[in-house]
Design brief:
With about 325 residues, this protein is α+β, with helices and mostly antiparallel strands. It folds into 2 domains: about 50-115, Ubiquitin-like (UB roll); about 120-314, Rossmann fold. It has 5 helices and 17 strands. The strands form 4 sheets. A 10-stranded mixed sheet has the order 6-5-4-7-8-9-10-11-12-17, with helices on one face. Strand 2 (about 95-105) and strand 3 form a beta hairpin. The termini are far apart.
């Protein structure tokens, strides 16, 4: 064996030794890292949830409400925490509409909440959201005045859809609906923001609202002229408390006619309201065919009306 062959063999042996040493080093390193990760996972397996992040669109639900709702959930072990349980308990809160829950390693739970959006009061005891679903919640948290809806069970969405369409028309006269009543016979009544009650009946609601909007300015103008005449007569006669000379305002407008409407008036002298409770009842008069539906134990303002009928052909 010559020197050249010996040198080549030595180089091969050295390269093999270095490669083997590198392989063993890498293998030991991988085993060490795997052992270290395993130790961390074992430690984390028994670690509790130490951070709860609550966010979302929550004008009514408070953080303490959420924490109290999930106090039955075991948070002592991150891997065993059931997000479905958290979602169930939070969803049961009265103001909550939807909930999303997820865990974030190593010790965090994130809860995203969207509250209900109330658009109306329903039968005095419930609220309606923007999808026509009834729910119960603490109304003292409301910072806005809601229209009042009354109707048979199951008619919530129908009431909301008609409110939206009819209210949109009335806005052209700077009026809004304060109260909507749907009777068990599906006859519609509206109380407007100026206190006037509209009796629409069961059919052609949009057409009758349009007729009202066309005629209402004329009614108000005629009433204003009539009140001015009474004021002048009263001043000339120096009459202080004559019932015949009292100013009037519109009490109701009955639109259940094919080509006209009936207007009822009441005296301004009796507009000071008194509050009382009544049970659910129907009140009907033969001549005016005027139906009222009140919710059980509903508070309402009572006036002493002096009404008269005026029929206008339009």
């Amino acid at each position: 064996m010559n020197n050249k062959e010996i040198t080549s063999k030595n180089k091969y042996t050295l390269a093999f030794g270095l490669g083997l040493a590198f392989f063993v080093t890498v293998l030991i390193g991988l085993i060490s890292v795997a052992w270290w990760i395993g130790q961390i996972l074992v430690d984390q397996k028994n670690s509790p949830v130490s951070l709860i992040v609550i966010s979302g669109e929550m004008p009514y639900t408070q953080r303490d409400d959420v924490l109290n709702a999930i106090n039955k959930v075991d948070l002592d072990n991150f891997f065993k925490v059931n997000v479905n349980d958290i979602q169930k308990y939070v969803s049961a809160l009265p103001w909550v509409y939807s909930v999303a829950v997820r865990k974030q390693w190593p010790n965090e739970v994130k809860i995203y909440i969207v509250d209900q959006t109330p658009v109306a009061s329903w039968n005095g005891d419930f609220l309606l959201n923007q999808f026509g679903k009834a729910f119960q919640a603490d109304t003292t948290k409301l910072n806005l005045s809601l229209p009042q809806f009354f109707g048979p069970e199951g008619s919530e969405l129908l009431a909301l859809e008609n409110f939206i369409s009819l209210n949109g028309l009335l806005e052209y006269r700077d009026l809004t609906i304060d109260e909507l009543v749907l009777s068990e016979r599906f006859s519609w009544q509206l109380t407007l923001s100026d206190g006037v009650l509209l009796n629409l009946g069961r059919e052609e609601r949009v057409k009758r609202i349009q007729r009202f909007m066309d005629v209402y300015p004329l009614i108000k103008r005629q009433l204003a002229e009539k009140n001015n005449v009474k004021t002048k007569i009263k001043a000339k006669a120096n009459i202080k408390n004559s019932g015949k000379q009292e100013k009037q305002t519109v009490d109701y407008i009955d639109l259940r006619y094919d080509t006209g409407l009936a207007v009822g008036y009441k005296s301004l002298a009796y507009l000071a309201p008194s509050i009382k409770k009544i049970n659910r009842t129907f009140i009907s008069t033969e001549n005016k065919q005027k139906d009222y539906l009140f919710s059980e134990n509903m508070s309402f303002k009572t006036n002493i009306p002096q009404t008269e009928e005026l029929t206008l052909n339009v």
